[in-house]
């Protein structure tokens, strides 16, 4: 079909300032990947297939989450240890303040430092039953760090860690307003963190508005967008509700009728996240953090669209 000149004008207007992915220079973009510690040998195998596949994309760091209330302490540590031992990747260990005294949290950080970890993602965390009845209800542990800012200060006293913290383009649900949330972010950075990684979002305008506000608050540190490739909208809605992220109607509509079409959902997911990354790139973003959910395929595809190519070989393994 040959589009009429009206159509092509509209397409040109839509794409103006946004080159197609295949024109993007790859050496400008850097990425990081987030994983969670596996619970079973099968999940461990999936995680390692994913790490092995994504490693040749030369991520700046790979981070491993920390379960509510320190529930994954041993598994997070074991995953980090294995990354250190078997790869040349730089691991970033997540650490939270939940259900632990300062001494207990400090001991975990010291273990990380002794194991060779130099980067920590410092977080407050949530109450273990957060979201179950719609109320996070976070209470600091008596004798614990009261929030992420206090944790960052504590980490600074322990060792010369590189520290990342969380940011919320759509405001954290516990924060009364955006200004209070930005004040909190600034305090975390002033306490010694060097970058923020955002909660996932789907409307790039939220991210750019947040970035503008942050800059107007005197926040100069990098604020890296966290990209979540979505394949299960039902699950996403539950999770998004807890963290205050809007799931736009168009996203729900796109996945309508695809419950029994997992391969199609993956294609759509790559397209949606790819489009988001393209918009972010057009707005000047050059660093991206991927919530991989321990599956390499979608993150790999989006990185490929962003122009990244493996250094050495990267073998495709089915994500299942
Ligand atoms: C990139 C990223 C990674 C994550 N990884 C994990 C993980 O591994 N494990 C996990 O359990 N969770 C993780 N989370 C979720 C995170 O723990 C929750 O979002 C949690 O509710 C807030 O953590 P925080 O570090 O942002 O908290 P904080 O920055 O301490 O603050 C949370 C909210 O409370 C408000 N607040 C804090 N202190 C004060 C104060 N003194 N006065 C008034 N208001 C205050 C802030 O404004 C903010 O809105 C992650 C989130 C992100 C974005």
Describe the structure.
By secondary structure, this protein is α/β, with parallel strands linked by helices. It has a single domain, classed as TIM Barrel. It is 43% helix and 12% strand. It is built from eleven helices and eight strands. The protein has helices spanning 5-15, 41-54, 73-86, 102-115, 148-158, 178-190, 204-216, 233-243, 249-254, 262-282, 297-305; strands at 30-35, 62-64, 91-95, 119-122, 162-167, 195-200, 223-227, 287-291. It has an eight-stranded parallel β-barrel, surrounded by four helices. Helix 5 (148-158) links the parallel strand 4 (119-122) and strand 5 (162-167). Helix 5 runs parallel beside helix 6. The longest helix is centred in the C-terminal third of the chain and has 21 residues, at 262-282. The protein is globular, with a radius of gyration of 20 Å. The two termini are 37 Å apart. Bound molecules: flavin-adenine dinucleotide (FAD). Flavin-adenine dinucleotide is lined by residues 65-66, 68, 94, 96, 121, 123-126, 147-148, 166, 172, 174-175, 180-181, 184, 188, 197, 199, 226, 243.
Give the arrangement of secondary structure elements:
Elements: H1 5-15, E1 30-35, H2 41-54, E2 62-64, H3 73-86, E3 91-95, H4 102-115, E4 119-122, H5 148-158, E5 162-167, H6 178-190, E6 195-200, H7 204-216, E7 223-227, H8 233-243, H9 249-254, H10 262-282, E8 287-291, H11 297-305
Parallel strand pairs: 1-2, 1-8, 2-3, 3-4, 4-5, 5-6, 6-7, 7-8
Helix pairs in contact: 4-5, 5-6, 10-11
The structure holds flavin-adenine dinucleotide.
């Amino acid at each position: 079909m040959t589009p009429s000149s009206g159509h092509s004008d509209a397409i040109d207007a839509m794409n103006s300032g946004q080159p197609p992915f295949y024109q993007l220079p790859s050496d400008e973009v850097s990425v990081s990947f987030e994983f969670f510690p596996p619970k079973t040998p099968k999940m461990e195998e999936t995680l390692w297939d994913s790490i092995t596949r994504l490693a040749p994309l030369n991520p700046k760091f790979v981070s491993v989450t920390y379960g509510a209330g320190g529930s994954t302490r041993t598994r997070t540590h074991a995953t980090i240890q294995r990354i250190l031992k078997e790869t040349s990747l730089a691991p970033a260990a997540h650490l939270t303040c939940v259900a632990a005294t300062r001494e207990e949290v400090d001991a975990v950080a010291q273990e990380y430092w002794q194991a060779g970890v130099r980067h920590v993602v410092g977080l407050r965390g949530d109450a273990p039953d957060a979201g179950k009845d719609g109320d996070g209800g976070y209470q600091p542990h008596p004798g614990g760090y009261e929030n992420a800012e206090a944790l960052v200060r504590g980490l600074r006293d322990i060792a010369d860690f590189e520290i990342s913290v969380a940011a919320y383009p759509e405001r954290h649900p516990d924060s009364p307003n955006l200004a209070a949330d930005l004040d909190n972010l600034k305090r975390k950075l002033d306490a010694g963190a060097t970058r923020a990684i955002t909660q996932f979002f789907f409307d790039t305008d939220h991210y750019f508005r947040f970035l503008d506000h942050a800059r107007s608050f005197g926040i100069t540190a990098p604020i890296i967008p966290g990209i979540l490739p979505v394949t299960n909208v039902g699950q996403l809605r539950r999770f998004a509700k807890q963290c205050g992220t809007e799931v736009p109607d168009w996203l729900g509509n796109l996945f309508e009728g695809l419950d029994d079409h997992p391969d199609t959902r993956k294609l759509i997911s790559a397209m949606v996240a790819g489009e988001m990354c393209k918009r972010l790139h057009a707005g000047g973003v050059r660093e991206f953090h991927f919530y991989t959910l321990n599956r390499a395929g979608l993150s790999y595809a989006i990185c490929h669209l962003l122009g990244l190519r493996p250094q050495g070989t990267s073998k495709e393994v089915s994500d299942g």
